Amino acid sequence: LFLPPQTQLALCHYTTSHDSDGFEKPGEFQPHRWLRKNDTDRVDNFGAIPFGYGVRSCVGRRIAELEIHLALVQLLQAFEVQLAPNTGTVPAKTQGLLGPGKPIDLKFVDRK
Ligand code: HEM
């Protein structure tokens, strides 16, 4: 199978996510970069498309996003989430999918 270099690059999530052509200051934690700028803003760039794109993209996307939002809201209302001291620095590991190179231990501090 021959893939042109751009396609190979697009398949490596770590590389595309750290490409400053797609993400300004890619090394900085800027959650607001994912906010939509207006009603027509759907996909800023192709650095991150976890549900695919186009006619064969994930049909369960809205359900999945709704469930994720509901779960996160309930969790964050009840707990403050902190990194456990033993977690340290977590390297990225690419195995087809991008994931953590070692376990991420979290501490859930009761907000009450
Ligand atoms: C975090 C959760 C999920 C992620 C990241 C995800 C991701 C994806 C991706 C990447 C594809 C392939 C898109 C493509 O080929 O371009 C896909 C397809 C699909 N997903 Fe999901 N998915 C998720 C949850 C769900 C859920 C909850 C359902 C069902 C309720 C679902 C049903 C499907 C179906 C039926 C397809 C095939 C669509 C087609 O080929 O026309 N997915 N998903």
Structural account:
With 112 residues, this protein is an alpha+beta fold. Helix content is 27%, strand content 16%. The strands form two sheets. Strands 1-4 form a two-stranded antiparallel sheet. The model has no long low-confidence stretch (mean pLDDT 83).
What brief labels describe this structure?
alpha+beta, 3 helices, two-stranded antiparallel ribbon, single chain, binds protoporphyrin IX containing FE, 4 strands, 112 residues
Quaternary state of this entry equals: single chain
Poorly predicted ranges (pLDDT <50, ≥5 residues)?
none
Number of strands: 4
Unique ligands: protoporphyrin IX containing FE
- Spatial extent as radius of gyration: 17 Å
Write the layout of secondary structure elements.
Elements: H1 5-11, H2 13-17, H3 61-78, E1 79-83, E2 92-95, E3 97-100, E4 106-110
Antiparallel strand pairs: 1-4, 2-3
This protein binds protoporphyrin IX containing FE (HEM).
